[in-house]
Amino acid sequence: MASNNSLTVVFFYYFLPQDMKMTKPEFDDFKLHIYRGYVQNNYILEYDNGLLLIDGASRPDVKGIEDFVVKKLNRKIEDIKLIAVTHCHPDHAGAVNILRSRHGIPVAAPHDIDSWYSGFGGAIQHVADTLQSRFMAVKLKAKHRFLYYSRKVKPDFKLFNGSELPVFSDWRSLHAPGHTLHNMLLYNGKNRIIYVADTVIEHRGKYLPPVPVLFPCCMKKTLLMVKELQPEYILLAHGHEGLMKYNDAMIDEVIRVIEKGVPRYARFFYLISKFSGEYRRNRHELCEDIPVESSYNNS
Question: How far apart (Å, rounded) are the C-alpha atoms in residues 57 and 182?
Fold first, then answer.
């Protein structure tokens, strides 16, 4: 299986545009490690004072993350000083509560992350999203695993637009609604690197929005925010490369796909993504109410 995955990565790398091909860069303050999770990429940043786990992975990744830290990095699992969660979906928050309960790892997440799955409609949405994650696993030919997880993250640290991450203050959270209302991106201005979570998906050399984009107007503003920041590197939760050189063409392509409307193959997933009370209360969202970090300081 590992060799097949390696061949796939090499194949897609060969067809990437030249300006997007890259060797793995070195950063001043940390070493970047990519953990290939159940249906997503996660990133473990190795600092002198500890490890930062970017996003909360899927429930089946708990053992894999533990083994990666101990066996590959030769570190103790307790060296993870923070898990930074960007939103509540199964492939981004599924392992959080288990890792925290086993190892006492604190969690930072959007301040309103638990609103999305609150109430009766939220409970239904949680089940529907877990089933969608299972469908994704089937498409990726991943083995069947138990995916159900707690719908409440209960973050130890609540993140707002522009918040510095605890312990790792070189990273900031940026409010990035579109996929949900509470989505966050994580940006390191010093190294000009941004983790976009599900805002940009790479699939066979194409750049796509996630399914669903429940708030398309807000999503376009989020994408334009990324474009305005002009990062040098972009980290993808879903994509063969994971770490890539940023290019405006990525953002332009995603916006064009959004403007075409919901593709036929995705309509069912949009239909089952509208149970959340947060969605129903905010489905007629006004873009002018969504802040854009146009004045963010890269220094």
Answer: 17
pLDDT tens per residue, range 128-155: 999 999 999 999 999 999 999 999 999 9
Give the span between the Cα atoms of 151 and 141, in whole angstroms: 25
What is the pTM (predicted TM-score) of this model? 0.89
Q: 87-119: per-residue pLDDT in tens?
A: 999 999 999 999 999 999 999 999 999 999 999
Residue 187, beta-bridge partner list: 172, 194
Q: Tell me how many degrees the CA angle 120-95-233 measures, rounded to the nearest 5.
A: 110
Query: Considering the domain boundaries, does residue 186 fall inside one?
Result: yes
Within 13 Å and on the Cβ side, how many CA atoms surround 211?
19
Residue 283 in tokens: 């489905």
How far apart, in whole angstroms, are the C-alpha atoms of residue 88 and residue 276? Answer: 12
For the chain, give the longest Cα–Cα distance. Answer: 50
CA angle 73, 109, 167 (to 5 degrees): 50
* Residue corresponding to tokens 């990525």: 250
- Nearest C-alpha neighbor of 75 from the set 54, 44, 119, 101: 44
Assign residue 42 the CATH number of its domain: 3.60.15.10
Residue 51: phi, psi to the nearest 5? -110, 140
Q: Report which DSSP code applies to 71.
A: I
Structure token pair of residue 185 = 């991106």
Domain for residue 293, yes or no?
no
- 165 neighbors 82 (Cβ within 8 angstroms): yes
Rounded Cα distance, 285 and 177, in Å: 10
